[in-house]
Known about the structure:
The chain is mainly beta. Helix content is about 5%, strand content about 35%. It has helices spanning about 10-20, 130-135; strands spanning about 40-45, 60-70, 75-80, 85-90, 95-100, 105-110, 125-130, 135-145, 150-155, 170-175, 185-190, 195, 215-220, 235-240, 245-250, 255-260, 265-270, 295-300, 305-310, 315-320, 325-330, 335, 340-345, 350-355, 360-365, 380-385.
Amino acid sequence: MIVQRxxxxxxxxxxxxxxxxxxxxxxxETPGAEDNATPSRTAAQSPPSRTAEExxxxxxxxxxxxxxxTGLKSPWDLAPLPDGDLLVSSRDEGTITRVDDRTGRxxxxxxxxxxxxxxxxxxxxxxLSPDYASDxxxxxxxxxxxxxxxxxxxxDAKKPSGEQLGAPDTIFKGIPKGVIHNGxxxxxxxxxxxxxxxxxxxxxxxxxxxxxxxxxxxxxTPEGEPxxxxxxxxxxxxxxxxxxxxxxxxxxxxxxxxxxFGQNTWDELNAIKPGDNYGWPEAEGRSGGTEFHDPLAQxxxxxxxxxxxxxxxxxxxxxxxxxxxxxxIPLKGTEAAAEPQAFLEGEYGRLRTVVAAGxxxxxxxxxxxxxRGDAKEGDDRILELEVK
Length: 388
């Protein structure tokens, strides 16, 4: 098991970040940051020719079908169960809750031991084992007192509410923690390997250090070992040069995409290529050179502060926190096929997680009770969307 080789103190990391001119949190909400001029969004130039079969239309649509559940507390991630119900992690409560897809009824599975919520840390990403139907394992990424780590727990739905989670088995630890930039998104890929997006915890030097676990996308076996075929020998590092990876999703051709918080200028959607360097802190957004892998689309930080992403109907759908909108990015291969299109702007506040539910259906979860949003009656909520 690989552990973090640099000891990074969360308080020092936060202080360093706040003393850096104009430096922003994951939502771009450092005092004064909203007064900074931010460029408008841009997308990669479209290829010269396409067919309707290859490329989704430049313009799409979104319909909110219904509100699935309300009254969620600091929800962070969403994982659909095989029967259609939804599991929700609570960042600050440290709990996992089951939501009935039909009635919205909430049943707490239990509290994850060892979660130490503070700032942007706490119980973050959750994912079901690829063999959940037989092993009933839930994976979780969380901030502990010393680091960020990934555990797996047996889910026994036959036990009473609050007692359904088994003792956590730590499969990976040593990811640097901070008051900010803890990453946290985990997902099993089509190859049944576990991918994790990490942040640099406010220490920008970690992103370019391939011996560090901060500012990376990691690729692991379900047991927490470096996955076979990783680009760097005996390392869990899949890509590096990231600031704070928050969304992971694959398209129908098994290509991986990731969303990432910028600082004050550009938020990013990236097409992920094993072993590539995505530039931070030397580059934010497109550099135009060959040293770093440029994003396929980028936004001014007031328009996005992206979190979760999903792929459906030929497009990546990206939830925006500070931007308070859902972005659609139509794709041709690993390029943007048209300008990104925004939906639901300001209608539901901050948007944290979006999950594909098959066909033209998405689950979308808000994030207004995390201390940064303007919580309304009923927040936070899960919405069912129909997209085209």
